[in-house]
Amino acid sequence: MSNIQLTKISTGTTGLDEILRGGFIAKRSYLLRGDPGTGKTILGMNYLTAGVESGETVLFVNLEESAEDIRDNASTLDIDLSDVHFLDLSPDSDVFVDEQSYDIFTPSEVEQEPLTQAITERVESIDPDRVFIDPLTRLRHLTSDEYQFRKQVIAFMHYLKEQGATVLFTSQHSDESSDDDLQYMTDGTIELENSTHGRTISVPKFRGSSVNEGDHAMRIKTGGLAVYPEISPTNHSRTFEIESVSSGVPEVDQLLHGGLERGTISILSGPTGVGKTTVGTQFMKEAAGRGERSVMYMFEETLETFRERSETINIPVKRMQEQGALEVEEMKPLDRSATEFAHRVRKDVEENDTSIVMIDGIDGYKLSLRDDNERVLVRKLHSLCRYLKNMGVTVILVDEIDTITGEFQATEAGISYLADNIIFLRHLEVTGEMRKAIGVLKKRTSDFERTLREFEITEHGLKVGEPLTQLNSVLSGSPEVAQQPSESYNG
Amino acid sequence: MGEAALILALGKQERNLELLAGLLENGGYDVEIATSMSEFDELLSVRDDVALAVLDVDGFTEDIWKRCEQLNDRDIPMLVLAAQIPPAMRQKAVSRGAQTILEKPVDKADLQATIRGLMEYIRMN
Predict the structure, then answer these.
(1) What are phi and psi of A87, to 5 degrees?
(2) Which residues contact A214 (CB under 8 A, 6 or more apart)?
(3) Do A99 and B16 touch (CB under 8 A)?
(4) What confidence tens digit (pLDDT) does each residue in A251-264 have?
(5) Cα dihedral: A278, A283, A287, A289 (round 10)
(6) Partners of residue B20 in chain A, C-beta under 8 Å
(7) Does residue A454 or residue A197 have the better pLDDT?
């Protein structure tokens, strides 16, 4: 039990390898639990084919589905099982035709011996490095009682380990026969779940190594399983210079005493139609000018309208996209879970060196992603933002508040604690005219201007005026003129 | 030990007889099997060295008890097997000379021990 170097082997699923910090530990046994249809067999197939790819001998012990059915199912997913050895112990269809049934002895006395014999013979003849048993719980029906079953399973696992194999086995769980006990007998347990919120995978037990906790997202697609690990922000970081990212509008930079710093989270809050997206895009336009890449995840608007709208206010979205300086992703509702979304953002940041990420907006995010409740969604948004922060990405979150004017609210999403910076945009009614104001409510990394400025969105872009010092009660939405309004801005 | 003792096994389900024969042969006995009454009658008519009869009575008609009487007349001990043994059946079997009645499924070890016991009893008498 000293410092034995534990060899890790790939599970065949990149995301799962990441969760297990490298994969399964060789020569150990793992339990794969989950209801019917959660993807247990597919995970097993991926596990075996990963072995084939690294030149190992692999054995699929199928106790329920026939080898032929398994191969057929694999081929619909484009998984190649041609180099996988099968030990087909599935009940023969001949049983039905031949009247092979019996009642003189119990199945445990009749079937078990030939079964174990078949397994040992096969294991000894091909000497596999990886074994997948699907499902192991069938042995339960072939043992006379719980004690015998446990004894059998433990002996079987020992035997396979002695033969040098890494074992993955599935279990079937029902109310009358729980598989809870199996968890005690293995080196690790992987649980698969499928709910209306999407498929998840978690690792409640893993001996000999730490793992990423949590419910990670999973998808079944061509080639087998894709696992999207939940982001744990502390595992990721990148060194970056804390510098200001300019908006390209001098007055906005003045409000922010420079701009938004790299590796900070900013919330752009304001009522509908006030220009939140435009202000956010302004930062991206300026970044594009510096040759940096930005990504915008649009939950509330279509790419078409966004592009058209931006072109009319001098933000050349199309050109920025063509240059590769801006990527706009239109997020389809209920297409993915929050973990999958976070994984997608992360992949993009790591592969493309993205410097600004904008999520437009938080309400759309909450509605579009398939997670069970708002708290989970906000928590996942939190960890995504923390991750992006650690990676030196400037994060812009767009948050819509319901009130057009009146009682001032910073945000409604319950995430203002998350923000390093809060920029708010407001509609104002001054002497019967709708106008707009921008201000900064919070900035963690530096001081900021404590006055509001009026702004307009024109065909030349964002125009921001001088501080609004002549108005009182601006935050109420219907300010009073402290003195006769003069030219308050030179837009 | 001399020649192996012959056990005659009767039952409707072939797989049952196969398993039973396998077990008995492993125990060092000779086994003849019959899946119908007529096969059974024929075997009885040609073999006069039957030491023991094992009868799985499930699926047979009441005629089976007549065979029990015949076996009893020839001093062949009987072991009767059935999935359920209501008191009336137990009475019929015992009154026709069945030594032992066991409920299916039987434990292999139990069955082996019972047969060994019956064989010893036969030798002693």
Answers:
(1) -120, 100
(2) A202, A230, A232
(3) no
(4) 999 999 988 999 99
(5) 60
(6) 104
(7) A454
Q: What's the CA gap between A45 and A62, in Å, rounded? A: 11
Q: Could you give the angle at which helices A146-162 and A112-126 cross, rounded to 10 degrees?
A: 10
**Sequence-ordered list of residues with C-beta below 8 angstroms from that of A99, at least 6 positions apart, any chain:** B13, B14, B15
CB contact under 8 A, B16 and A110: no
Identify the helix (H) or strand (E) that includes residue A276: helix A276-289
Angle of helix B64-73 relative to helix B37-46, nearest 10 degrees? Answer: 10
d(Cα A267, Cα A424) in Å, to the nearest integer? 8
Contacts of B107 in chain A (CB under 8 A): 105-106, 109
Nearest Cα residue in chain B from A111? B19
Which residue of chain B has the CA closest to A102? Answer: B16
Q: What is the DSSP letter of A229?
A: P
Distances (CA, A) of A209 to A6, A14, A138, A203, B78: 9, 17, 30, 12, 63
Q: Which of B23, B105, B108 sits opposite A103 (nearest CB)?
A: B105
Q: How many Å from the N-terminal Cα to the C-terminal Cα in chain A?
A: 75
User: For the whole model, what pTM was predicted?
Assistant: 0.75
Cβ–Cβ < 8 Å for B58, B20: no
Beta carbons within 8 Å of A148's beta carbon, 6+ residues apart: A108
Given strand A294-298, what is the order of strands in its sheet? Answer: A326-330, A294-298, A356-360, A394-400, A265-270, A421-430, A433-443, A453-458, A461-467
Would you tell me how many other CB atoms lie within 10 Å of the CB of residue B89? 15
pLDDT, tens digit (0-9, with 9 covering 90-100), for A173-193: 877 777 888 888 899 999 999
Chain A residue numbers with beta carbons less than 8 Å from the beta carbon of B104 are 103-104
As for the ipTM of the complex, it is: 0.83
Cα–Cα distance, A348 to A346 (Å, whole number): 5
| Helix (H), strand (E) at residue A41 | helix A40-53
Closest CA to A151 of A187, A123, A112, A190: A112
